[in-house]
Amino acid sequence: MQASNSALYVSRVGLMLSRSIASVKSTGSISSPSVACSNRPVQCQGRKLQQLRGISFWGSSRNESNSDKNVQGWKKAVSEAEKIVGYPTSFMSLRCLLSDELSNVAIQMRKLVGTGHPLLQIARKFFFDGKHNMQMRGLLVLLVSKAAGPVEGSTMETRETMVSGIYPSQRSVAEITEMIHTAKLIHRGVINLAQLATNGESSLQDMVFGNKIAVLSGDFLLANASAALAALHNTKVVEIMSSAITDLMQAEFTRFSDHHNLPPDDATVSEWEEHTFLASGSLIAKSCKSTMLMAQHSDEVQQKMFDFGRHVAFARQLYDDLQPFTGPTEAPDQLNPFSIPVILASLRQHSQEPARTALFGTLAEKKELFRRLSDSDVIGEARSLCHEHGVQAIEALSQFPDSDAKLALANMTRAMTAV
Questions:
Q1: For the whole model, what pTM was predicted?
Q2: Strand 196-197 to strand 43-44: parallel, antiparallel, or no bridges (unpaired)?
Q3: What is the pLDDT of residues 184-218, one digit of tens each?
Q4: DSSP letters spanning 253-307
Q5: What are the structural domains of the chain?
């Protein structure tokens, strides 16, 4: 009875969100502005819009190139992993992406071309990114499911038939994970209109229109994720995955980000870890735990896979933070105050104000900060942290028997920590 009530609640949440999209489908528009799009980009008052930390495409750092050895190693590890789980994970959200509702949204999104709305950049990365970045969370969930295998004597064997060593319900968890993550990316495409200096009323209306599309599209994906969660008929999994969505929201309101979208002066590594877990680690960690729960694995195995996901997320964020220093070319213009090298350096200076000033100053000031960071030992310390989390992630897999899936997980983890 408890499971059915929970499923009914989640279904109702999904229905309410879906109705907002259904209204779009019936009217054929989303309160489209009466004037034509001005095709003129907008700018942020006082400074350029900063690249928001937490929107990691897991490998799509601007300082990477297809010829980079690390990128080639990552692509090889992902390609081999996709063969193991049975199909390219780019198909994971295909059913949702090809729905009539999102097709209508895509038509409306064409009106944003030329306006500079960040939602377009997110959409381009999602559909046209060729570096195997977008479905990594789901792929990790599938690999963990296959590496763990079935539990001997469990009732799952009588309820579901494994395909390529993975239960259908575990594939559903992977798809739900990707839908939640994609919804987050789309919602992050909403911009703060108060910080914009527009080129007239029409440009402002373009931005308002883009924000409406971002909100409704993200809500639609969350509605589908909610419905899919209810269909699993597992109250505990609904609770775990719902808490992951809560963590994503809480990440936007931590002390790590002040009203200027900057961390506080006295930001610590512990706060960096807390924010990173809420923003990205929670979803993958709790998804790995949920897929173990669906297959009726023990609490110990569930906790181990939770730890695996958490350490992988930390290692990947550290990899991204180090890219301006360790990529194929130096990139001082990509420094941001959220990165671990800047935080480590600020802790030693007992204030982050010098970094703030330089990061929002001239290119010469950024280059000087970049040089000081490069000459210090903070880069080596950040590298050590990245490798440490990678080692702990691989250690969490030690309970599983040797298999292609386990090896693929280890190879992907090593590729994430190759800095």
A1: 0.77
A2: antiparallel
A3: 888 887 777 776 655 555 577 777 877 887 888 88
A4: GSTTS-TTS---TT--HHHHHHHHIIIIIHHHHHHHHHHHHHTT--HHHHHHHHH
A5: 2-17+73-416 (1.10.600.10)
